[in-house]
Amino acid sequence: MDWNTLATTLFGPAHGIAQDGDLLHGHVTFDDAPLAVIGTTNHAPIGVRLALAQARHVLDTIAHHPRRPILLLVDTQGQQLRRRDELLGINRAMAHLGLSIDLARRRGHRVLGLVYDQALSGGFITSGLIADACDALPEAEIRVMRIPAMARVTKLPEALLTELSQSNPVFAPGVANYVAMGGVRQLWRGDLRQALREALAEAPTGDQRAIDGRQRGGRTMAADVIERVLAAP
């Protein structure tokens, strides 16, 4: 689903969300209450300029609209792989975006992520995954690394990783596997306005991903390790 169709479905044809290149931003009315919308489109590669632009809109919302909920629309191919962005400090720009979203949460803004198209690697980690909750449309594509790239990094055969991906969500791309691991809280099916309404009302303010992953069988050890670390003297 393209962003404008999604926005029209959620907020009506006069939604007020603007597209500036690969950047989406605007303030809409949902159930008679204001909502800030910030996101990306066109499978955007997140470089220094785009990361800082998103962070600017998050910080402006914090400054001028205290406690206003924020919806992050995610469609990204990951970080921009260019020498220029590396030299300009893409790692610091993306960290700034993540910290801005975290600041919004700490200042009382309910922050929701919605993967409506594609979400890959660092571009996803520093946006939707830092929200109070990250949901997705069923047709969305989510992955951190393709199996061939994973094989090069881990030095394990592709055939072995492919076999592991059949039974272990950690090794497999796909939105259903991210639901199983707890990275994605739930899929929005049917009435999208009702799904947003429920997400705004029910999304947790604490990090529940490890607990969800344990309950769903996708990440069986993460929550136990976290609990042991927190209980250590």
Characterization of this structure:
The protein has a single domain, classed as 2-enoyl-CoA Hydratase, Chain A, domain 1 (Alpha-Beta Complex), CATH 3.90.226. Helix content is 45%, strand content 21%. Strands 1, 2, 3, 4, 5, 6, 7 and 8 form an 8-stranded mixed β-sheet that branches. Helix 2 links the parallel strand 4 and strand 5. Helix 2 runs parallel beside helix 4. The mean pLDDT is 91.
Question: Using only CA atoms, what is the Rg?
Answer: 18 Å
Low-pLDDT runs? none
Task: Tell me what portion of residues adopts beta-strand conformation.
Answer: 15-25%
Looking at the overall shape, the CATH architecture is: Alpha-Beta Complex
Helix content: 40-55%
CATH topology: 2-enoyl-CoA Hydratase, Chain A, domain 1
CATH superfamily: 2-enoyl-CoA Hydratase, Chain A, domain 1
The general outline is: globular
- N-to-C terminal Cα separation, in Å? 49 Å
Give the helix/strand class. Answer: alpha/beta
Summarize the structure.
This protein has 233 residues and is an alpha/beta fold. It has helices at 3-11, 48-64, 83-88, 90-106, 121-125, 147-154, 158-165, 175-181, 192-202, 209-216, 222-231, and strands spanning 18-20, 23-30, 33-40, 44-46, 70-79, 111-120, 133-136, 141-143.
Relevant terms:
alpha/beta; 2-enoyl-CoA Hydratase, Chain A, domain 1; 8-stranded mixed β-sheet; globular
Tell me the layout of helices and strands.
Layout: H1 3-11, E1 18-20, E2 23-30, E3 33-40, E4 44-46, H2 48-64, E5 70-79, H3 83-88, H4 90-106, E6 111-120, H5 121-125, E7 133-136, E8 141-143, H6 147-154, H7 158-165, H8 175-181, H9 192-202, H10 209-216, H11 222-231
Parallel strand pairs: 3-5, 4-5, 5-6, 6-7, 6-8
Antiparallel strand pairs: 1-2, 2-3
